[in-house]
Amino acid sequence: MNKSITQKIIEQHLVSGTFIPGNEVGIKIDQTLNHDNAGALTYLQFVSLGVPMVKSEVSVTYLDHNTLQMGCEDADDHQYLQSVSGKYGIYLSRAGNGICHQVHLERFGKPGKTLLGADSHTLTCGALGMIAIGAGGCDVALAMGGSPYYFTCPKVIKINLIGELSPWVSAKDVILKILQMFTTKGNENFVFEYDGDGLKNLSVPERATIANMGDECGITTSVFPSDEMTRLFLMSQQREEHWIEIKADPGADYDKVVDINLSEIVSLTARPHSPDNISSVKSVGEIEVDQVCIGTCTNSSYKDLATVARILKGKVAHSRVSFVIAPGSKQVLDNLLRDGYLSHLLLAGARLADCACGFCLGRGYSPKSHGVSLRTSSRNFQGRSGTKDAYLYLVSPETAAAAVITGKFTDPRDLKVEYPKVYMPERLRIDDRMIIKPGDVNDALSIEKYDGRGIGDLPKGDPLHQNILGEVTLKAGDTVTLDHILPGRFQKKYRSSLAKYAEFVFEDLDNTFYKRSKEIRNEGKYNIVVAGVSYGEGSSKEHAAICQMIVGIKVVIALSFRERHKTSLINFGILPLTFKNEDSYNNIDQGDCIEIANVRKVLDDGGKLFVRNLTKQKEFEVSYHLSERQRRILFSGGALNLWLSQRDRQ
Ligand code: SF4
Description:
By secondary structure, this protein is of the alpha/beta class.
């Protein structure tokens, strides 16, 4: 059988299962990445495994989300992450060195390897011909401890890129076109595998922008071939020896093939408040722009920022526009400096932000009330910028630069100047001194576990009992996001104090939830959550799952789940059940008392599972889609409990 790149890499790493889409497979993980937004929780779980040293080939901690260190919480977390990294053989990329995805692409990614990251945009490294997947911290911790990563074997869609992009149109426009075609829904358990003659003109950083925002489509990952472009990129990084060629077999089997003619793509934008709300820049009209932010983990490469610098050379930002740049890494910044581009940007009025996530997630640079902000980052959800009523538009660096000059939405072709085509340099200046290598620790403090202000105990879940008695503590609607489950605004203060953070579960949907959930637990019942379609949309924020466990939620019954959150629920011992029809969802109310009898036996036998509504004296059937391994996790009360019990039996 002729194989896709996806199938080849997955099969080379298979530990369990076979490459049959829809079946669960387990793969060996070669590399992991974590960062300072989720890392403390991940490392608490890793440390609890009792493993003396990471078992992956490469594991890296990135201090990149909370680099401003406003208040002690961020600095405490950084100290904790540095101490765990030093102790367990993990590289540490220090605050200011860059954003995990950009730095990993530059310094660690290798064609043909697998990467598991506790961040949803881990797919970025698919640009190098890796299988790179974003997962919850629990799965990443287990992979660091040597466990395989289990997931649903994906179907593969080949996206055939044909021809060449027109001047002023770039990689961001390609992924916005793909988002227009595929939208943000209905793509779970698919991989986008790129091919076609159009690839010969797309450098690795351009591929990285496309790979990164595959996450907005909800896919498992994006993957590119490892070809001559990949070799040139690795050569510029002075690590050509890591290059191997990877390509699909001729006539490889795909679930679907989609052709995209690059020359037909025009400058596009994702309008507020969703990455798939796509229009051409021309059709948006000349809306006045208040802020332009260029960089973060998409469009933050040397090529992107050098292109902007050349467009802006000798000009100054329009008086209305607040202009910010966040290079993806210190390496990008240093090479912009080397080649004279940084001064063009600064003289044009750019404010230089940390090489960090910053404005992408509202850590600084929030636009004014009702402001229009053009951004080259990956998400434009309402409120993500820190200004709830702002209007965020995702655009290419070229469109962003045009707005810097004109102060309004402008198709960059209307600048009527020659397009400054920038190529990636053959050699970049490389300086890895901001990366602390395992065993390279000269700070005695940093090899001790540091508990800071309360980073500490990891709560454990209850095993699944034979009979579950509970109350519907919350009936939610469709598209409950991770931010609805656990508001992000409390994350900074409480992300490492889990019991406290759990007090804010569902705060924005019903601020009586926590108090009521406690009362129900005191009555000896579990909390049960009922929801509509797409429960758990959003990033890979695992706190949302562990905090549901802490408040005693044992079952979530929804019309459908986002796959990544469903996995996290199971990892923390929460049973995800699916309504068989909308009538069952409509006939259940908040406050109803629920009984699910013989649940362990039914899950074991594979029989029909019924939920009894004791309040309404009705019964309805629900579905469960669980692998044998997931059943064992639930029976143990969570993935860590299962791992520890298996270790103790050995
Ligand atoms: Fe950071 Fe934003 Fe990228 Fe997430 S999407 S890694 S917050 S820059």
